[in-house]
Design brief:
The protein starts with a helix and ends with a helix. It has 22 helices and nine strands. The longest helix is centred in the N-terminal third of the chain and has 37 residues, at about 1-40. The chain has a five-stranded parallel beta sheet, with helices on both faces. Strands 1, 2, 3 and 7 form a four-stranded mixed beta sheet that branches. It is of the alpha/beta class. The protein folds into two domains: about 1-105; about 130-495, 3-Layer(aba) Sandwich (Rossmann fold). Helix 1 (about 1-40) crosses helix 3 and helix 11 (about 280-290) crosses helix 17. The protein is about 55% helix and about 10% strand.
């Protein structure tokens, strides 16, 4: 009799358990489905983001819903009760594991960046981007002070279209002849004076005597984001007696660089012997793929004659960004488009306290467990990681082939050199993300390749990054990079 009562009690609890879960999961899936449909209209959302959202949310929660519905199709009471006990214990164990992972991330992982730096004795400048610009204008009396721009992200995110920002020009550089405030990554806000085309170059590019003329292309590492002007890669190479034209710009890949090269290769009175592309695999691969799939950058890839004639339209470029900054500073605009609140900024939030609401949401939705299932089960079954990497490499090959052809348009004697910039993660783990692939690519395209990685892994991490923490290279890091490039050029091409 007791067994019967126990069985009935378990059945009662099981019914409540599964009905509550079904209701919750049904409502959650409706919400997630509409969120998925709305992704298309969100700024910066790509195909991979939509796939990850679908597999990590809709598929996993749908599978859980099916497992709950299955209970009501079982006819035998004893099997139903056993199913409930197995289901409950599995879900509870996974939930508990997720909870422990979140507690670990909240209390046992390293402090956020600001706390880590302050423990090193750094007094962190907590001002926002706009506050810094306002203070500089007051202190210096200068009016032409602006935040850095991200043209690559602006284009692939279709931001102009989504915010009804009508324009007949697509800039690829900053506002010209202005102070560009760009980054606070180590406690100090950094800035540089932009040249006549909005790039990070000094007034006098040409020395009477120099080793070679170098044209630099790449992303934020090349532009000089998050480091003092006198310590960026352009300055370090100039100190080694090179003439350097820096067309680096944060927030883009190889196609974005190719577009800048086409627009500005004849804009300066500068004829490079070498075009050096500083390739940062951590984001250059994905950025290049996004650009490859965008109709604007496809014009630069497929149409050899396409050009916006930007070198003769700097006044329009300046007006474009001034209008955009004025628009994005309005409170009603930022409320409608919160993703643009810090657009173009490289800024570490001053908040030091953990966001407990964020962690609570992750606990309730078992974010860590779902991510594990997505990355190690769904992705493996679909072979997505392997397929994605192959697609990315195929695109990279096509784009670099086109990039090399663009370099040859400068002069048949101008040589392209690829420099692979290892990330903090790659140096720490002593493993390059695309080591073999890049070597094979450069060999196939007959492009010179400078191996930075082999030298960097022999160095103290504190000499490459500020206090050894991840981010852009430190002043010493850029110094090491410049010396390795210099050694390669002298050994292979002479003085």
């Amino acid at each position: 009799m007791d067994n019967i009562k126990t069985g009935r009690f378990i059945a009662f609890i099981a019914n409540l358990y599964f009905k509550a879960q079904i209701l919750f999961l049904f409502l959650l899936l409706i919400y997630l489905f509409f969120q998925f449909l709305l992704l298309e209209g969100r700024i910066g959302i790509e195909e991979a983001d939509k796939y990850n959202f679908f597999t990590n949310n809709i598929i996993i929660f749908s599978a859980l819903l099916i497992s709950c519905l299955t209970y009501f199709f079982i006819k035998k009471d004893s099997i139903k009760n056993n199913y409930f006990l197995i289901h409950f214990s599995t879900i509870f164990s996974l939930f508990l594991l997720n909870l422990l992972l979140e507690i670990r991330s909240l209390y046992f992982l390293p402090d956020n960046r600001i706390v880590q730096f302050e423990k090193k004795g750094v007094i962190w400048d907590n001002r926002t981007h706009n506050e810094v610009i306002s203070d500089l204008k007051t202190e210096t009396g200068e009016k032409n002070i602006y935040r850095s721009t991200n043209p690559g992200g602006f284009i692939v995110g279709n931001i102009a279209q989504k915010i009804d920002f009508e324009t007949n020009i697509t800039p690829l550089s900053n506002i010209s002849n202005s102070t560009i405030v760009h980054c606070n990554e180590s406690g100090i806000w950094r800035s540089y004076k932009s040249d006549k085309f909005g790039f990070n170059n000094p007034e006098n590019l040409i020395k009477k005597e120099s080793k070679f003329n170098l044209l630099l292309l790449g992303d934020s590492f090349t532009e000089g984001i998050c480091v003092d002007t006198k310590n960026d890669i352009g300055a370090k190479l100039r100190n080694l007696n090179y003439n350097v034209l820096n067309l680096g710009k944060a927030g883009g890949g190889v196609l974005f660089a190719k577009a800048r090269l086409r627009e500005y290769k004849h804009a300066y009175n500068f004829k490079p012997e070498f075009v050096i592309y500083l390739f940062y695999s951590f984001n250059d691969v994905t950025d290049t793929r996004q650009e490859y799939n965008h109709p604007f950058f496809q014009k630069y890839l497929n149409d050899k004659q396409f050009s916006q004639d930007l070198k003769n339209k700097q006044d329009k470029i300046d007006i474009f960004w001034k209008r955009f900054f004025a628009l994005t500073s309005k409170a009603d605009f930022l409320k409608k488009y919160p993703a643009l609140k810090k657009y173009g900024q490289y800024y570490i939030s001053p908040a030091k306290d953990p966001n407990h609401k964020f962690y609570l949401k992750k606990i309730l939705l078992s974010t860590n467990i779902r991510a594990f299932i997505h990355d190690n089960l769904i992705a493996q079954i679909t072979n997505r990681k392997s397929n994605e990497k192959k697609k990315q490499l195929d695109i990279l090959k096509k784009v670099f082939t086109s990039f090399k052809a663009e370099v040859n348009e400068i002069d048949s004697k101008t040589k392209l050199i690829l420099v692979y910039l290892p990330s903090h993660h790659e140096i720490i783990n002593k493993k390059l993300y695309l080591r073999k692939e890049i070597i094979n690519l450069t060999n196939e395209l007959n492009v010179d390749y400078i191996n930075i990685y082999e030298s960097f892994i022999k160095m103290n991490i504190n000499d490459l990054f500020d206090y050894g923490l991840s981010g852009h290279y430190s002043s010493e890091g850029y110094g090491h990079l410049a010396r390795i490039i210099n050694q390669h050029l002298l050994e292979k091409y002479g003085n």
